[in-house]
Every structure is written in C-alpha cells, then in structure tokens.
Amino acid sequence: MLDPETTRQDDLRSGTGPWRAGIDRPAGQPLEADTRCDVAIVGAGITGALLAEHLTAMGLDTVLIDREREGVGSTAASTAMLQWEIDLPLRELAALYGFDRAAEIYRLSAGAVAGLSRLVGELELSCSFSPRHTIYLAAGEIGPRELRDEAELRGRAGLPGEFVEHAALLGSFGFDRKAAIVSPGSAEADPVSLCHGLIAVAARRGARLIRDEAIGFDGAARGAAVSLSGGHVVEAGHVVLATGYVMPEIVRDDLHRIASSWAIATAPQQPGVFWPGPALVWEASEDYCYCRTTAGGRIVFGGEDEDFADPDRREALGMLKTQALLHRLQALIPQARLDVDHAWSGAFGQTEDGLPLIGRVPGHPRLLAAYGYGGNGITFSFLASRLIGSLVRGREEGWFGHFAIDRSRPG
Q1: Is 215 helix (H, G, I), strand (E, B) or coil?
Q2: Angle at CA 167, nearest 5°, toward 165 and 169?
Q3: Residues lower than pLDDT 70 in the chain
Q4: Domain residue spans in the chain?
Q5: What is the pLDDT of residues 210-246, one digit of tens each?
C-alpha cells in the first residue's frame, strides 16, 4: 500500500530546473472500468518511460500509471549526468564483492550509457542528448595516488580513461586540482524532454496512460494487479513499480535509504567560461559536488547532499544550500558568472553498495521493482528497463543477481 502522504510531487522535489517539456504525448486519463494488460507500470518518470518504450517495442500490451503529470517528480529534479562511473569507486566495490564482479558491474553501467545513446539516436528523440567525457577530480582525502590506483584498476577491467596530473589538468581543462581521471563514454540530456519523448513513442505503439493513484498491489503466482484510488483495478501479467524515490511498503530492503540533494543552474555564461568538452565534472570525495553545462549555455552545479528525506526540512535549507553551491562553484570555476536562474532540490534513493535495487519483489513473483539509483539515475533506469524486460519474458541472466532486491548485505 502506498501512503498518499508520501507520494506528493512536492515531497520529491522543490523549485524548478532548466528543463523543458518534450514533444506532445497523450495526457493520462482516469480509468473508467477495470482493465487488463500484459504489464502495468506504476510511475511515469524516466524509469517508467524507458520501461514503456522497451516493453511496447517487445510487442507487450502496456499500461503506464501515475497520479501526477509525466516527468514532474524525481525526473524533473535530475541533473541528467548520464555517467557510467558509479558512486562507489571500482576499488571499493571490488573490496566488497571481488574484482571480477565489480568489473562486470562497471562494464554493465558503461554498456547502459552506450545503449541509451543508441536508443535516442534510433528514435530521433529531441532531448539535448550529447556524448560527454567525465572529469573525476581529486578532492578531500582522495589524491593523486588513489586516483592513479583507481585508473589502473579500471584499465584492468577494460574500462576507458586516463590519469591526468595537475599540470596537464590545469593546462587542458583549467581545473586547479592535484589530479583527475578523464574518461569517455558518458553523456548528458534534458531529462524531462527525454521522458516525454519516450512516452510519446510508447503511446504511438499502443501504451495506455492512466492518471490515478496506485493504492495497492498484488503479485501472486498466477497474475498481478494494481488497485487504484478511483476504485478500479488493472490486472496484468506483471506489475512494475517505478515510483522514483518513494518506495511502497511492499518493497522492503535494508540496503536502501532516502537522502536529499540540491542543485542550481546559472544564467547563460559568456564564451570562454566553459572547460573543454564540455565534460561532466565530479569530485572524488564522499561529499562531492558535480557540474555540467546545458544546451542554453548554463552551468548546472549540484551536491551538498544530506542524509534525510523530510521535504519541509529540505526546502527550508534551500537558500543556505544555494549559497554553499555558489561558493563551491566559484572555487572550482573562478571565471563563472554566478547569477542563479534556477535553484531546486530533490529526494534521491541510495544504497550501501552504490548499486540499484532491480528485480522481483521477494515473496511476490509477478511484482517487479526498480529503486535505489544514487547518482546514476538515468543510467540505471536504462539498465532496469532491459533487466525487467528480460524477466517479463521469463529470461534470467547471471548478472541480474548483482542488483537483486534481496541480495546479501555487503561486508
């Protein structure tokens, strides 16, 4: 059962980012009678959109359910840095699970960004999608030695990237840090436009959009169902829970927790302010900040995360966090214009091992879920769509266990 008090749009984000609505897509409509389908997806954010596109491409009768307009919750709070690098460095993930498993997870993440890039091109989606390098900067206790070791470990795993020392980093990119790892294979996008474009494609293939609140789920062995607040029921072969960072009570996991993050978008910058690429930039410290550019010439800068989920407390800190982000932006890019055009915050789910929770809900064989993306939201959303698509078809692969909801706690 979803608690209506925990699913308000305002609980997921505050403020507005620089993202724009995508191409026209059908508006969700209330359900007027009980219905049936192959797959019912609860949540019409980016994960639900990727699922709807993929499942309809498989020829499945798909229903997409959300109580809000598509893409206005967690998706609108995303900074859409589509990185294959995971919050937990490869060396730390290898310490938890062994090198071979950790390396495979990193390669799967890299493959997800590549797969998303191909999909956007094939569907010709207008979402400001651009391939990007990443610049992983030394920060805090992570200095040149640690970054060199990380780069060598990534090379052993078959991952791209280059260790860059201070002089070369300053000369090539303008960042006055001790060292960095510069890697190809990531990307950026407008997350709302991407979400809307995917939903429009799914709708053209026959996906039905339902505007209602899911209040109950059944994932029994022979079938599944979603109960709606309007009094009707959607029966399905499978139900997929993709409700962003609001995890319903039926999904229980000790690895998962909700935190809060803040972001700003500057006014358009003058020519010559941006670093070459322009690449996605993030710091190697645990309390890291990150930045990217937009097609409109803005700098998006985020971070200052806190380990609480209270939306009122998060909103109350908005001005303080905006000033803190501006201070850190000025320290990193002294030439940047610091006028703020957009400031926003949002909830995000994270796990102890930095990996998402994707797969079957324990005890409910027809109920599937995708949560806990951390800083790799859209990358792991794409991965979730492929993993869940395989499960719906009855296909299992060995790597699915890396992200299982009931996987063992690390350590």
Answers
A1: strand
A2: 65
A3: 1-15, 22-23, 71-72, 253, 411
A4: 4-78+192-254+354-403, 260-270+287-346
A5: 999 999 998 887 889 999 999 999 999 999 999 877 7
Torsions phi, psi for 361 (to 5 deg): -75, 120
Q: What phi and psi values does residue 353 have, to the nearest 5 degrees?
A: -100, 5
Write out pLDDT tens, residues 307-340. 887 888 888 998 999 999 999 999 999 999 999 9
Superfamily of domain 4-78+192-254+354-403 in CATH is FAD/NAD(P)-binding domain (3.50.50.60)
Inter-residue contact 371 to 356 (CB < 8 Å):
yes
Three-state SS at 249:
coil
Of 200, 150, 225, residue with least CA distance to 21? 200
Token pair listed for 296: 């409109």
What is residue 315's three-state secondary structure?
A: helix
Q: DSSP letters along 83-134, please? A: -SS-SS-HHHHHHHH-HHHHHHHHHHHHHHHHHHHHHHHHHT--S--EEEEE
C-alpha to C-alpha distance for 198 and 193, rounded to whole angstroms: 9
Element (DSSP H or E) covering residue 239: strand 233-241
Ranges of beta strands (E only) in 267-331 are 280-283, 290-293, 299-306
